[in-house]
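Whiteboard transcription, Tuesday session. T.W. wrote the structure tokens on the left side:
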């Protein structure tokens, strides 16, 4: 049995989802894969820190956050008052799981945390779009230099394996175009508006369900989808692109009338992220598109995401699944762990 020690930066929804999965499925993973994943350290700027080198009590962690909103009195653990960097430097983790908030302008502070962890020869897994969309090439070079890996399945479509489908399984099929509904919040809003809700009402619901970013401007103006387009371009198509090169428009200019009119014509407005390879150059955009009913993305509703890979050998390959959510994004981390320790 191999024990894998995990240190978590941030203890929000995704980290709690991961904890729940390990609580429920950890024994099964140990039995079937010979891997025992132990959360040994946590540092969260608001909830505090916790450490136990033999593995923190998972039920105790969830109960503490549920009851107190912070990490307090976890059975058998110490509270070393570490910030994220101190935790990376002091805890004996094999994998640092970076789940701090998304910053699409600079990728900080998470880029600093990831860099520090890689330099200390720790694998890194992140679901954070900022550092990957902005700095993947540099981070990958540091990881390679130190002989460790970066797992990032959860940055696009949460635990729905869109990244590994593109980077591994379809890598030889000649991907020429990618189109996706890559933001759950906007798809939820557009679907709710189709059934008569107002924009404001639908956005408030998406926020209450925990789909939206801390600042929902990132969702509704298309920045979150653009970050995912940049990640797909770099990782799947091998073309690094700057945000400024992605033509971007959000959903805020769509009116209830636009949506009603489309509906009468059996069409659906979707916020579509697209990447097209032409003569070795990539063209990238995020914009609302009014899709005919028979388009593979047209009927994907609610918070669900979908992606269509148009390939030379296989034609269109479509993957539909959750794009956000606590357990769903937590599961992306499990996929990355399995991939690193395969
Ligand atoms: N705010 C994002 C969304 C979360 O709505 O898709 C997942 O990246």
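and on the right, the sequence the group agreed on:
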């Amino acid at each position: 049995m191999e024990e894998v020690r995990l240190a978590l930066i941030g203890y929000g929804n995704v980290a709690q989802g991961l904890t729940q999965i390990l609580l429920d499925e950890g024994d099964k993973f140990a039995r079937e894969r010979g891997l025992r994943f132990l959360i040994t350290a946590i540092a969260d700027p608001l909830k505090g820190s916790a450490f136990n080198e033999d593995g923190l009590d998972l039920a105790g962690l969830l109960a503490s956050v549920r009851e107190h909103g912070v990490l307090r009195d976890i059975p058998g653990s110490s509270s070393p008052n570490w910030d994220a960097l101190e935790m990376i430097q002091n805890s004996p983790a094999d994998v640092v799981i970076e789940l701090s908030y998304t910053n699409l302008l600079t990728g900080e502070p998470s880029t600093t945390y990831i860099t520090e962890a890689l330099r200390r020869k720790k694998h890194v897994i992140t679901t954070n779009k900022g550092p990957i969309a902005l700095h993947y090439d540099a981070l990958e070079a540091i990881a390679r230099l130190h002989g460790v890996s970066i797992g990032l399945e959860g940055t696009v479509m949460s635990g729905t394996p869109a990244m590994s489908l593109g980077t591994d399984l379809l890598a030889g099929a000649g991907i020429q175009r990618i189109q996706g509904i890559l933001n759950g919040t906007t798809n939820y809003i557009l679907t709710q508006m189709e059934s008569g809700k107002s924009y404001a009402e639908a956005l408030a619901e998406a926020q209450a369900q925990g789909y939206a970013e801390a600042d929902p401007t990132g969702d509704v103006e298309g920045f979150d989808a653009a970050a995912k387009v940049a990640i797909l371009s770099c990782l799947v198509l091998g073309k690094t692109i700057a945000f400024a090169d992605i033509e971007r428009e959000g959903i805020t200019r769509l009116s209830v009338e636009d949506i009603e009119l489309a509906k009468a014509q059996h069409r659906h407005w979707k916020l579509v992220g697209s990447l097209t390879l032409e003569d070795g150059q990539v063209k990238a955009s995020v914009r609302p598109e009014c899709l005919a009913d028979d388009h593979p993305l047209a009927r994907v509703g609610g918070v669900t995401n979908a992606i269509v890979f148009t390939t030379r050998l296989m034609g269109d390959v479509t993957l539909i699944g959750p794009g956000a959510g606590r357990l769903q994004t937590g599961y992306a981390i499990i996929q990355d762990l399995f991939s690193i320790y395969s």
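Someone added at the bottom: The longest strand covers residues 267-278.
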